[in-house]
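User: Fold this; C-alpha cells only.

Assistant: Input:
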Amino acid sequence: MTDSPHESRPVGRGRSSQDTQQGIRRRNLARVMHAVRAAGPLSRAAVASHIGLTRAAVSTLVDDLIRWELLEELGPERPGRVGRPGSALAVSGRGPAGIGAEIGVDHLAVCAVDLTGAVRARAGRRGSNRGRPPEAVAEELEALVHKVAAEAKREELWPAGLAVAVPGLVARDGRTVVRAPNLGWQDTDLGRLLPSPLPLTVDNEANFGALAELWLSPGTPADFLHVSAEIGIGAAVVVDGAVWRGTRGFAGEVGHVPVYPDGPGCACGGRGCLEQYAGEEAVLRAAGLDTREDAVALLGERAGAGDEGARRALRNAGAALGIALTGAVNLLDPRTVVLGGALAALSPWLLPSLEAELRGRTTGPACPVSVSRLGSQGPLLGAAHSVVRGVLDDPAGVAERG
C-alpha cells in the first residue's frame, strides 16, 4: 500500500528546494482529495479550513485536480451558509477507477470502483479452479478484466490499476503467489501471466478483506483480527490501521493452525488443520451436503429450520474456529475479531460455540466477535478500493501516468 498522505517524510541533505516543494505539493494534493472524499461536497474555503492551508493555495491545487478529472464542481453550495456561496467540490464519478479481481477456489470475480467508492461494473463466473493450470485461470481472469474495463469505459472511467486477491501466500514483490494449497499453485508469477500496462498488485484475499472492513465498515477499530472463512480460512492482523504482514509477508495463515494434531491430512501437508473442521467444504460434508453453488445458503436454511445435523456441523466448526483463534487472541490482544467470508452468513449458529471457546481459553477479558456486513464480497471490494486509495494518496502520480 502507498504511504498515507498525512505521513511526513524526511528530506535528504542533497535534495533541492524544488524537490522539497514538489513533495509538499504532492502531499497537499492528496490531503485535498482525502478531505473532499471524507467530508464533501466542500467549497474551496471549507477544504482550506479542513487541511489548514490558505484558500489561494487550495484553489491552485483544486484547479489541477479538476483538470485531471479527479474532482468536479457541483455548482453553488446549499443556501443557509454565511457569506458569498462557493462552488461545491466533490470527488469525480468519472476518470480513474480501481479494478479489483479475485481468484477463488470455486470462482473468479472482477469489479470496477470509481473514486466515490461506487461499484460501476462487475463480471464473474462460478466453477472450480482447484488443480487448474495457472495459465488457464489467468487467461480467463484477463478476459473478465477486459470486459469490466470496457464497461467502465462506457461510464467515462479508465482503469488506474489492477489488484488481485488470491487464496494463498504472496511474496513481498506483490505479484508472486508462493503457495496456494487449495489451488495447487506454487511459485506462480501472476505479473507474468497477466501482462498489462496497468500497475498490478497481488495480495492474500484475507488481507484485502480486512482492508475492505477497515475502509468500508464505519466504526471498525484500527486494531482487529479479520478472519475470512471460505473454502479455505485466512486471517489478517490489522494494527494501527495497517495490515501487519510479518517478515516474509505470510502472516495470517490461521487456516493451517492445527486444531486437533492427529486429525485428517490437509492440502498444506499438515494434519488436523482448522480448514479440515471449519472450511466451507468441511462444514458441508459434516452436514451431509454436497458443494454445489447454493449449498451454503441451503445449510443456513436447514439450520434455521432446526435441522440438528446442520446445527451440529456449525457448532463443531465454531468450536474449531474458537480453539484456533484463542492462540491469536492471546498473542496479539486485538480490539475485536471480525468474521467475514461466505460463512459469515451462518454466524447465528457458528458464534455461540466460537465465543464459548474464546471465553474459556483466553487469559484476559473476552474478546468481542463481530460479523462483517461485506461477507464474501470483502476481498474483491478490498482489492478494488486499494487501487482507489492509491489514487487518493498520490493524485499527481496518477495524472503523470495518465
